[in-house]
Amino acid sequence: MSSSASASDRQRRSGRITRVGIVARADLHRAARVLVDLGEWLRLRGVDAIFEERTSSLAAEGDAGQKTVRLEEMIGAVDLIVLLGGDGTLLGTADRLAMAGASIPILGVNFGSLGFLTEITLPELYDALEAALNGDTPIEERLMLNAEIVEDGRVLEHVRVLNDVVVTRGALSRMTDLSVSVNDQFVARFKADGLIVATATGSTAYNLSAGGPIVHPGVDALVVTPIAPHTLTNRPVVVPASFTLVIQPLGGGTQPADVYVTFDGQIGHPLPVNRIVRITRADQPLRLVRPTTRSYFDVLRQKLKWAER
Q1: What domains can you pick out in the chain, each with its CATH number?
Q2: What is this structure's pTM?
């Protein structure tokens, strides 16, 4: 472990925040002035502001000089990350940091259209950040997943996932034919447009659109949801997050040649019949700084209009 990582660990254990990483969506030009003001606000409080390299380019539009590092280099370099963007920005950042072994708390500020994960609004930014610096905000841990593409026992791809792993058909209209097992026990053969394995965090994303249940993030579980299944009895199932799930495309005349697996909607890979997707619980959760002004159910009602229609 590097000396910088050791120092950061000591600061996190003591609860003292002295270095804040700043990350924004790469094309979020309207945030340039906010980035400059945020850096200055932190410096006036004796806190180092460290910009992710692409975010630094945005901040430069506001004529500010900053300390700059690559996103993966923020491990050991900061005690907190302030993220400006939408839920997609948070997903991509969380997945990359998790692959690098980070457990840095993230305070997400919504510049997107929904803001279910990045739920802090711009007018709330400085109050929320002040509370975080003072240790007055709760940090909520969210389950993350290891997802692997395996062929003949070899791992071809390994990623970390916050929301969901999705197997879908490509351009062809035929349905997919997928076998699912948990802990080496056969679950079912899903004939559907695709299949979603979602965490509780991801239950309000694609899973919800496909008819899956809303699962509170405090529930340690995964949801397996077929997309437009061929049979009416093929319904979502909730399983413990400790289970190992394996998804295997099946051969046959109805199986389309272009089946794909996507991870958090960020990256996708072809999934021919000789490959499987293996999903397990990740060792480290995502740590989200939550505002104290609203509950999870408040967010459901405000963002999704849940139970109000």
Answers
A1: 3-142+285-304 (3.40.50.10330), 145-281 (2.60.200.30)
A2: 0.89
